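Tokens in:
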């Protein structure tokens, strides 16, 4: 199997982390987002969406981080994707929750418009209004995650053990570190992220993210939550 990815990609890092924790025969092929390789004909021919990640398993091509995580978990019979119908449904629910709510507001509403030029609104007033809207919406989702999902001493987001939803959610939440969000006002989120970051594979699978995406913006001025 081959994974087309980029090591700073928010949607590639959860797969990298999962693969590091599991016995998968997975080849990693970098698609250089910084030079626009994902927009070139060679990659467009195999992934018309021009995005990473993409998995190629002997000609079976699969896109979307959530789908790839589930496929790989079934391939290696991982406990991170339970077989029990209701437990699996809860994992699916939380993965959709991260993707459709928090990722949209935190990533595309707050972080990306401040650090990626092609997401920045050209009119300063529109940019300001967009960030104000994004921050308001992101705070709502973070409050739910902190108080309702991780509240009451819950260590993980979808059960009693780490699941695919935690891999995916951690990738999305740590994106906030690019603009120096420390989640100090969300103690349960802080605790959950620390537990994940203390895992032995975290550093190796996120080194490029901190070197090439977080560090370059450490002195920037940002609108924060």
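Residues out:
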């Amino acid at each position: 199997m081959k994974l087309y990815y980029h090591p700073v990609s928010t949607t590639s890092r959860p797969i990298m982390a999962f693969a590091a924790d599991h016995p998968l025969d997975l080849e990693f092929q970098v698609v250089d987002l910084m030079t626009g390789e994902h927009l070139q004909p060679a990659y467009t021919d195999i992934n018309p969406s021009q995005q990473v990640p993409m998995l190629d398993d002997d000609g079976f091509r699969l896109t979307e981080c959530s789908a790839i995580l589930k496929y790989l978990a079934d391939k290696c019979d991982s406990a991170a994707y339970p077989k029990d119908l209701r437990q699996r449904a809860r994992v699916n629910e939380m993965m959709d929750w991260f993707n459709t709510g928090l990722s949209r507001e935190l990533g595309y509403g707050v972080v990306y418009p401040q650090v990626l030029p092609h997401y920045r609104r050209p009119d300063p007033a529109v940019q300001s209004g967009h960030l104000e809207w994004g921050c308001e919406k992101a705070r709502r989702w973070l409050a739910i995650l902190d108080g309702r999902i991780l509240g009451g001493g819950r260590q993980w987001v979808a059960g009693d053990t780490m699941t695919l939803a935690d891999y995916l959610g951690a990738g999305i939440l740590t994106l906030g570190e690019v603009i120096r969000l420390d989640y100090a006002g969300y103690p349960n989120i802080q605790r959950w992220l620390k537990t994940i970051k203390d895992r032995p594979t975290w550093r190796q699978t996120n080194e490029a993210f901190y070197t090439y995406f977080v560090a370059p913006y450490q002195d920037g001025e940002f609108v924060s939550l």
